[in-house]
Amino acid sequence: MDSDQAVRERYAAGAQAREEALCCPVDYDPQYLKAIPQEILERDYGCGDPSRYVRAGERVLDLGSGSGKICYIASQIVGAAGSVIGVDANLEMLSLARKHRGAVGERVGWENVEFRRGHIQDLALDLDLVDGWLREHPVRSASDFEAMEAHCRELRAKRPLVPTESVDVVVSNCVLNLVRDDDKPTLLREIYRVLKNGGRAAISDIVSDEDVPAHLKADPELWSGCVSGAMREDRFLKAFEEAGFHGVTLDKFDEKPWRTVEGIEFRAVTVLAYKGKEGPSLERNQAVIYKGPFSKVTDDDGHTFKRGERSAVGDKTFELLRRAPYAGAFELVEPHAAVPPAEARVFDKRNKPRDPRDTKGQEYRATTDASNCCEPASTGSSGKSCC
After folding, report:
1. Cα–Cα dist 230/6, whole Å
2. Do the Cβ atoms of 318 and 341 come closer than 8 Å?
C-alpha cells in the first residue's frame, strides 16, 4: 500500500468513527465550539489551532479541512463580512463537513463556508469538475487519457479551484506532512500563489528533530498517522523561505514531543509566513533603526540592520517593517520632505547607514526651542513633570 492510499483509507475511516491516534491534544476557544455539531468535533484531527491567527472580515482558505471544524471556527471569527473555503480530497470527510453547513450557519447567524474537493498540492484543479467530465468522457484508452489531461489543464487555467491571489490567509492543521515529499515544495508554492499580496499562512503541523529514515517513511501506518511524513524542523521553515515567503516565524513549538519513534522526536509546531516582498524598492530617503536586543539582524532580502544605527532602506522594505511580524522591532524615520514615487530612483544603498541629512534635507538649518515633552506627574492629579 502506498502512502496516498494509506492516507485515503485511514481518513475515510476516521470520518466514520473517531481515531485517537490521529490527533494531538489541542485547546480551542470553547465559545466557538458551541455552534459546531458533536459529530464534527469528534472526527476532527489536528495538532494545533491555526484559526487563532484569523481576523474579522478576511477570506480564509483551510487546507485539508477534514470534518470542517477549523472552517466553522474561522467562520465565526471572520464574521458575516468574511468567508471561508475548505479544501479536501477525501469524499467521506467532505460529506461530513458539508452535511452540517446549513445547521452551523443558522446557529451563528450567517453561512459563509464552502467546501471544495481538490488536492492541496494542486489548488488549481477542481476534482468535482473532473468527475463531471469523466462521467461523459470515460477513459478507455491512452488517447482518452491524453484528452483528460488536456481538459485538466484547461480547468486549471480557466476554472481554478482556488484562483491566484484570492485569499487573505491560508491555514492548515496537521496535513502538510501527509503530502508526498516530492510534492511538498509544490504545495508551498501553491499556498504562495493563492495568497494575496500582503497575505499570510498559519500552518500547524508535525516536524521531526532528525531526518526520518526510509524504512519509517515506507511504513503506511506511520505515514498516515502524521508521523513519518514530517519534515525536519529546520527544513520545514526553510521550505517556506524557498517558496518566496518572508518573515517566517516559529510561533509555537511544543516542548514535549507528541511521539517518539526509534529515538526521533515528532512534535507539533505552528509556523507563520508572509507574502508581499515582491517588486522593486525605491529610494525615498527613508531610514529605520533596529532597537535590539541583538547586536544586528538580517532580513530575508539580505538587509543587515545594526542595533541603534540609522539604516538606509528602500520604500518596499520600509513598508514591510511597519507590518507583522516586524512591527515594533524598528523605529521608522520618515524624510522631512517626501520623495514622490514617480521621482524616485531604484534603491541602491543596501547595508549602508543613512546620513541624517538624507532624511532631513541637505539645507536643513532649523533651530527650535525645547519641545513640549512634559507629561502628567506620577503623583498628583494635575501636576506636570518635565522630561
Report:
1. 15
2. no
Same domain for 54 and 25: yes
Answer whether residue 307 shows pLDDT above 70.
yes
Pairing status of strand 286-290 against strand 330-333: antiparallel
Q: Which domain holds residue 354?
A: 280-387
3-state DSSP of the chain: CCHHHHHHHHHHHHHHCCCHHHCCCCCCCHHHHCCCCHHHHHCCCCCCCHHHHCCCCCEEEEECCCCCHHHHHHHHHHCCCCEEEEEECCHHHHHHHHHCHHHHHHHHCCCCEEEEECCCCCCCCCHHHHHHHHHHCCCCCHHHHHHHHHHHHHHHHHCCCCCCCCEEEEEEECCHHHCCHHHHHHHHHHHHHHEEEEEEEEEEEEEECCCCCHHHHCCHHHHHCCCCCCEEHHHHHHHHHHCCCEEEEEEEECCCCCEEECCEEEEEEEEEEECCCCCCCECCCEEEEECCCCCEEECCCCCEEEECCEEEECHHHHHHCCCCCCCCCEEEECCCCCCCHHHCCECCCCCCECCHHHHHCCCCCCCCCCCCCCEECCCCCCCEECC
At 386, the pLDDT band (50, 70, 90 cuts) reads low
b (16+ CB within 10 A) / e for 245-273:
bbbbbebbebeeebbebeebbbbbbbbbb
Rounded to two decimals, the pTM is 0.89
Structurally, the chain folds into a number of domains equal to: 2
Among residues 226, 243, 274, the one where a domain terminates is 274
Q: Which residue has the cell 493563492?
A: 194
* Cβ 123 vs Cβ 87: under 8 Å: yes
Q: What is the pLDDT of residue 12?
A: 46
Stated length of the chain: 387
Tell whether 129 is covered by a domain.
Answer: no
CA dist., res. 253 & res. 257, Å (int)? 9
